[in-house]
Amino acid sequence: MDFNNTSTKDGLIQACEGFLGFEDGDISGNAALLKIFTRHLNDRYNQNTSWIWKATADWQYDDKNKSDLPEASCDLVLNQQDYELPTSAQKLMGVAVKNSDGNYQLLIPIDRSQITVDMSEFYEDAGMPVYYDVIGRSILLYPKPGSGNVTVSSGLKVIVSRDVTLFNSTATKTEPGFAINFHRILPIGASIDYAVGKGMWNTVNSLRLEQKEVKSDMQEFYARRHKDPDDKLKIEPKDESSI
Known about the structure:
alpha+beta; four-stranded mixed sheet; 18% strand
């Protein structure tokens, strides 16, 4: 879902108007109210990203220490190059792999444009990863982890930004960086926040029931997908800079 689409009427802002029983344009056409709902949507976006990380069975997400950036770790698989992140909403700040001594070593980020040989020939033999590339939500390790070179248990660690890439009230085509099936969880949450402030308790109770259902479906979706290593759905977040 786009952030604010006044043409097709199917953006996040338009969903908020619908959930709250507003007329078309009551939010999108009111600059002050649009900023309020942008804040609510961003708050819910941060919350939802945490829910997604915690739903995955193979990633252990630690966001308890607010003085540091959040970290997540998962087990390495010998000779496996591709590892999928639960969400692309947060910026990847660093990647580390645990060596055979059990110590994490930071990897060097690269881009395929920097490599002068065919990718199939770049660090062809398994070993201790040195570089990583990011494509969509996938991290590719070079070389892929080899036996005797790495510690498998919690062997891959990622450091991500604390905040998601937030919406701007002037945005139109920006989309959330998680599965489109569940984008509506953001306007549901934003509408709850607004309705609580206005004492619209019937609306609050109704939306909380819908939020519970969508959250359950979303967490089941991410938990199931990350149990299946062959399910490699890759979705890159769309923003206005890429249009």
